[in-house]
Amino acid sequence: MKIDTGRPPEGLGTLVRGLLARLDPAVDHAYAARVPGMRSRFYPVMRELLTRESATIGELASAAQVSQPAMTQTVGEMVAAGLLERSEAEDRRTRLVGLSPRGRAAVGALWPVWNAVAAAAAGLDEELSMPLARLLKEALAALERRDFAARIEQAKGEA
Question: Closest Cα partner for 86 from 100, 68, 67?
Answer without folding.
Answer: 100
